[in-house]
Amino acid sequence: MMNPxxxxxxxxxxxxxxxLTLSAGSALAExxxxxxxxxxxxxxxGTFDRGSQQRGFQVYKEVCASCHSLRxxxxxxxxxxxxxxxxxxxxxxxxxxxxGPNAEGAMxxxxxxPSDRFAAPFxxxxxxxxxxxxxxxxxxxxMAKARKGGADYLHALLTGYKEAPPExxxxxxxxxxxxxxxxNQIAMAAPFADSxxxxxxxxxxxxxxxxxxxxxxxxxxxxPELEERKRLGIKVLLxxxxxxxxxxxxxxxxxxxxx
Length: 259
Hints:
Elements: H1 4-25, H2 50-64, H3 85-93, E1 96-99, E2 108-111, H4 125-131, H5 143-146, H6 151-159, E3 161-162, E4 176-178, E5 185-186, H7 207-222, H8 226-255
C-alpha cells in the first residue's frame, strides 16, 4: 500500500495536471465562437497541403522563430513537408547548436545537422522573458493540440487583433486587444500584416494566407504522423470489411443445409 505522503503527492500531481489541461483548453475568450475553416487535413481522407506546409515553415523561420521554439521537432522531420535531404541540410546549417564536451572538456557551438532539434531562440526562459518584457513566448511544437479548436483557433487568434479595444475596455500596459484570446488581452503584438513575407513560390502573402499557412504548418508539427495514421486506419477498415464479408460467406456455406 502507498503511504499517506505518497497518496498526497499523487493527488497533488493529478490536480496540477488537470489544472494545466484546463488552462490549455480554455485559451479561447468566453462567449466567442470560432470560425470553422475547411482544412485540407480534416476528415478521414484529409491530407496536408504540401505547398501550405512549406509556406508555413517559411513564415515560422522568418517571423516566429525569433521568439518561439519548436523544441520537439528535428530538422530531419521537415522531410514530412516535402523538403529534400539537401534542402534540410541547408536549413539546419543556418543555425548553431551547443555540443560537447570536446577532448578538452569544453562545450562548443557548431552548425546544426538534420538530426538536431530546432535551435531555440533563447538560451533559457529568463533570457526569453527579458527580451519580451516579462512575457514567456510559448513553445509551438504542440500548440495546435494544446488549444481547443486546433488550427481554427490558431488562425482566428492570428487574425483576431484589433487596432483599438471596444469602447469601455481598457488595456493593460503593453497588451494588445484580440477578439479570440482569453480575456481579450494578449502580450504578443500582431505578428504580421499583408506582405509580411515574400513567399518563395510566388503566392500572394495576405494576412489571411499567412495565418492559414502557419496554422497548417503548426497542425502538422503537432501531429506529423497524422497522414500515416489515417492511411493505416483506412487499411484496417478495408481489412475488416473484407474479413466480415468472408466470414459471412463461410457462415452461409456452413449452415446452408440447415435452412
